[in-house]
Amino acid sequence: TDTDTDTDTDNPQGPISITVVNNSPLVRYLNGANGFNAFVDCEDENGAACSLDDNYCAFPCEEVTPESMDCLILCEPMWAVIVLAPGESRTIEWNGWMHQFIANYCQDSGGCYTTDPPAAGNYEFYVQVWEEYDCGEGASCTPDENGVIFGAQPSGEPVRASSPVTLPRTTDVSIYVDHHETE
């Protein structure tokens, strides 16, 4: 995440915590690939996707130009799942900035992202959780001390859990995973 935006006073949103709570009687798995804050997504009131996290496989657009030939970053996703046992929760700190990926920004077909304050309005913050995961070749398939299984990917049908959010806001957000929700 761009450190200049973490403390910038031009954003009326400001940082908040987003907590995902597993109220289901089942163990659920969050997709932890590409950064552990990336498992919370959002949509605006028109259903357009928005991103609370930057894309670690892309440069900020302010660091490259459309004439750039070197903004294509070749990176493999860091596959991981995050274990969410019944009654357990996982909290991320959101810095209050929205990130938009712009594909094919550079001559090498690479993309970049912009970072802006969110527009005031209604959003839906959501997560997708799975009941199963698959381990990659050579992965231990054992959660570490933080409940992360490196080298694993979620599998099966995802379940979506969400919370309506009006921005800007100063209070934290909770998203509850219930056993009756289906995609």
Lay out the secondary structure:
Layout lengths: L2 H4 L9 E7 L5 E4 L9 E4 L4 E2 L8 E2 L19 E5 L4 E6 L3 E5 L9 E5 L4 E10 L1 E4 L12 E3 L1 E4 L3 E9 L5 E5 L6
Structural features, described:
- The chain has one helix at residues 3-6; strands at residues 16-22, 28-31, 41-44, 49-50, 59-60, 80-84, 89-94, 98-102, 112-116, 121-130, 132-135, 148-150, 152-155, 159-167, 173-177.
- The protein is mainly beta.
- The strands form 4 sheets. Strands 2, 3, 4, 6, 10, 12 and 14 form a 7-stranded antiparallel β-sheet that branches. A 3-stranded mixed β-sheet has the order 7-1-15, with no helix packed on it. A 3-stranded mixed β-sheet has the order 5-9-8, with no helix packed on it.
- The longest helix is centred in the N-terminal third of the chain and has 4 residues, at 3-6.
In a few lines, what is going on in this structure?
With 183 residues, the chain is an all-beta fold. It contains 1 helix and 15 strands.
